[in-house]
Amino acid sequence: MTQEQAAKKKAIIVVSFGTSYPETLKLNIESVENRIRAAFPEYEVRQAFTSRTVIRILSERDGIQIANETQALERLQAEGVQEVYIQPLHIVPGAEYEKIQKIVSHYIHEKVFEKIRLGRPLLYAMGQDNHPDDYEIAIKALATQLPAADPAHAVVLMGHGGMHPANAAYGVLQLKLEDAGFTNTYIYTVEGYPSLARIISKLKQKQVKKVTLMPFMLVAGDHATNDMAGEEEDSAKSQLVAAGFAVEVYFSGLGENTAIQDIYVAHLKAAMAHPHHGHVHRCSKGHCHSQGHASHC
């Protein structure tokens, strides 16, 4: 351990699913990590991926070794770090986020660190009680990359989706977009609901002529390259072209958006500002109650 690391007995682990696309890794993940480094200069900032597949690909193909979330925590423990904050770069509190929650709960229970806290993903709180509305905040950040409003031009966002109940976040986001006045912005998911077919029928009803496809994912990686913008007939681009729309592709992940980067910094600050040290808690009405979960305030 270097002298500089020894001086930093506080650490932040920035954890994401990861990506096997080197350029995307730099633009979308490392850019957020660097934003966090700049905001918290007194902390040692580490990178971790939750995807074992991505970690394996990078190791075998590029000789790049990236820690998973458990390895990153074990290394900090071995180095004698006592204060640890984990900021996930996930979009919704789904299976990948729960994986980290369980590990953090275990570390809290075992009292491995003096303090360990978990920040929340991009979309978590909906403005209930004294909590911020993560959806409204994310929409404002997203608005910085949306084209000018035009009734004949729609934006179609691609989310990941899946079987996890957190998939419902995308339905909430659609409603919140409408509430915020973005009536020509739609979201579909690759592996869940809302579906692209649902959006295509709405675009036809509205007599939209042109569509901009945009990833609502941290990285513009495999899903953006193939499922969204690929040349195969089942890609979103091909389906929209076949349905008669002119299609443009905005090929950047959310991690490139500085306003989105700032949200992750804000979520980390919220976790740090939490009044309870090293307890397991869930927040309600501004108070915290022990419930066997890692903090996500």
UniProtKB/TrEMBL annotation:
<dbReference type="Pfam" id="PF06180">
    <property type="entry name" value="CbiK"/>
</dbReference>
<keyword id="KW-0479">Metal-binding</keyword>
<feature type="binding site">
    <location>
        <position position="160"/>
    </location>
    <ligand>
        <name>Co(2+)</name>
    </ligand>
</feature>
<keyword id="KW-0170">Cobalt</keyword>
<feature type="binding site">
    <location>
        <position position="223"/>
    </location>
    <ligand>
        <name>Co(2+)</name>
    </ligand>
</feature>
<dbReference type="GO" id="GO:0016852">
    <property type="term" value="F:sirohydrochlorin cobaltochelatase activity"/>
</dbReference>
<dbReference type="InterPro" id="IPR050963">
    <property type="entry name" value="Sirohydro_Cobaltochel/CbiX"/>
</dbReference>
<keyword id="KW-0456">Lyase</keyword>
<dbReference type="GO" id="GO:0046872">
    <property type="term" value="F:metal ion binding"/>
</dbReference>
<feature type="active site" description="Proton acceptor">
    <location>
        <position position="160"/>
    </location>
</feature>
<protein>
    <submittedName>
        <fullName>Sirohydrochlorin cobaltochelatase CbiK</fullName>
        <ecNumber>4.99.1.3</ecNumber>
    </submittedName>
</protein>
<feature type="binding site">
    <location>
        <position position="191"/>
    </location>
    <ligand>
        <name>Co(2+)</name>
    </ligand>
</feature>
<dbReference type="GO" id="GO:0019251">
    <property type="term" value="P:anaerobic cobalamin biosynthetic process"/>
</dbReference>
<dbReference type="InterPro" id="IPR010388">
    <property type="entry name" value="Anaerobic_Co-chelatase"/>
</dbReference>
